[in-house]
TrEMBL record:
It comes from Coffea canephora. Belongs to the TRAPP small subunits family. BET3 subfamily. This is DH200=94 genomic scaffold, scaffold_1046. One of its GO terms (cellular component) is trans-Golgi network. Pfam families: TRAPP (PF04051).
Length: 122
């Protein structure tokens, strides 16, 4: 409330990376990348909500023809993806309240690192 409105999308994203993320997770975003055409990638190298994720091996389906390792990896990705809907929604809601409509998705190629991809809607 003490600040003037952001003049461009980059300033709002920087606010999310520094101030907003610090309030939520007690640390800043580790890396911010942009293509300067409405796509931003926020990377958190030790995303706190994924630090202790594991999968119960008993969840595998017995008698399946598929590779068990591939099935386990798929289930892990699904479980982690479910846990990332909420932080994606938090980012989207914060930007929406700043007057920036966007779509947010998450990438988890290297746990516990997590990348949030923000695409600004024109």
């Amino acid at each position: 409330m003490d600040r003037p409105r952001f003049s461009d999308h980059l300033e709002a994203i920087k606010f999310i990376c520094k101030d907003f993320w610090s309030e939520l997770f007690k640390k800043q975003i580790d890396n911010l990348k942009t293509n300067h055409r409405g796509t931003f990638v926020l990377q958190d190298n030790k995303f706190r909500w994924l630090a202790r994720m594991s999968l119960d091996p008993s969840l595998e389906t017995p008698g399946s023809i598929q590779d068990p390792v591939a099935m386990a990896e798929n289930k892990v990705a699904q479980a982690i993806g479910m846990h990332l809907y909420f932080p994606c929604g938090i980012i989207r809601g914060a930007l929406s309240n700043l007057g920036i409509p966007c779509a947010v998705s998450a990438d988890i190629s290297n746990l516990p690192a997590c990348s949030f991809v923000i695409r600004i809607k024109a």
